[in-house]
Automatic annotation (TrEMBL):
Keywords, ordered alphabetically: Hydrolase
GO molecular function terms attached to this record: phosphatase activity
Domain (Swiss Army Knife protein DSP-PTPase phosphatase) ranges: 54-142
PROSITE patterns: TYR_PHOSPHATASE_1 (PS00383)
Record's protein name: Swiss Army Knife protein DSP-PTPase phosphatase domain-containing protein
Annotated segments matching region Disordered: 227-247
Species of the source: Mesorhizobium hungaricum
Keyword Hydrolase: yes
Alphabetized Pfam families for the sequence: PTP-SAK
Length: 247
């Protein structure tokens, strides 16, 4: 019985590895929202240039962090600049839940960067999956369950056996749980149309201001996070209400 069990586990692991390998070779390129947000793994310079041109990408969101001196990073910067797009780097790990500052900056980038956006990490499965799920839930109008589909085996996300990438799933559901604790007035307001309540104090959040960020994004949000490693916290509630997010 134990032999059969171990053999089954081995077959599952082998299948997962084969699928992950295929996704890496092809770039793991997928659409999150048509014409607005795309996701991928680490692309070759030619793959990246082609995708930037084809989808008219205006922002590249790199979740591997700044790595000057590494060929993949230097080439990516060069290709992105040549295409006239903005490059943002955030130092995330697929195996560790991001801290408050880093998670806030990720949501900030997703909410405010010029679109179309390309989100990528190394394999395009875990960190990119979290970012895609957050975008789909917070700005794409998807339910939590629908958005969570971006963290699935289809994209190479495999948070089982010895994998520690379940950290991405835990992070997503933490944000979902926090979002559900918004005040009633805010719950009636779609993210894309901005807040209607004048009581900024109601936008409190047990998760360090993430919901306040989504409802009241700081005016200088993009410039402050470009190539951040990692950035500081968002502007405190009560420091002035900027314009709401645009759909």
């Amino acid at each position: 019985m134990l032999t059969v069990f171990l053999a089954t586990i081995g077959m599952i692991a082998a299948g997962a590895g084969s699928w992950a390998g295929y996704l890496r070779v092809t770039g793991n390129i997928h659409e999150v929202e048509a014409g607005k947000v795309y996701r991928s793994g680490q692309l070759s310079p030619s793959q990246l240039a082609s995708l930037l041109r084809e989808k008219r990408i205006r922002t590249v969101l790199n979740l591997r962090g700044e790595k000057p001196g590494h060929s993949w990073y230097d080439e990516e910067i060069q290709v992105t600049r040549k295409a006239g797009a903005r490059h943002i780097s955030l130092p995330m790990s697929a195996n560790v839940e991001p801290n408050e500052a880093l998670l806030t900056s990720l949501i900030e980038a997703l909410a405010s960067s010029e679109q179309p956006i390309l989100i990528h990490c190394e394999g395009g499965a875990d960190r990119s999956g979290l970012a895609s799920a957050l975008y789909a839930f917070l700005k794409g109008g998807k339910s939590a369950d629908e958005a969570n589909g971006h963290l699935s085996f289809r994209y190479g996300h495999f948070p089982w056996l010895t994998s520690r990438t379940e950290a991405m799933d835990r992070t997503f559901w933490r944000v979902v749980s926090d979002w559900g604790r918004r005040p009633a007035a805010a719950l009636k307001t779609p993210l894309s149309s901005g807040p209607k309540s004048n009581n900024e104090g109601d936008a409190l959040s047990s998760f360090g201001g993430i919901i306040a960020l989504v409802l009241f994004p700081p005016a200088n949000k993009v410039n402050r996070i470009e190539n951040a490693s990692p950035p500081g916290l968002i502007t405190p509630i009560g420091a002035g209400r900027p314009a709401p997010l645009q759909p």
